[in-house]
Predict the structure.
Amino acid sequence: QVQLVESGGGLVQAGGSLRLSCVTSGRTFSNYAMGWFRQTPGKERELIAAINWNGGSTYYVDSVKGRFTIARDNAKSTVYLQMNSLKPEDTAVYYCAAEFGRSSAIPVQAYSYDYWGQGTQVTVSS
């Protein structure tokens, strides 16, 4: 079993920045690809960024490219999401997720992920 705990969400003005963190425990962190998803009411959970087990491959959805950066520190069992130039449309609950596997491939479907955090709210005011 893997436990994931997100932190770093909050209220920020448009144009501002936030850094989300997701600390994991329970299994060897470096055996997992990690993803950040977000969800708004009435919509499906959307993968916005992901990173493979060693950081050699990353994925970003088009809407966050150039603004968000995903990174991981395997020594700290933590994955980060640096969010810059935030927009009101970035407002959502953000979840981190873990997918077991050491591959260069990035899982992009929510059903591929094995473990989920509880989510952290990000609100961007205009």
Notes: The chain has a mean pLDDT of 95.
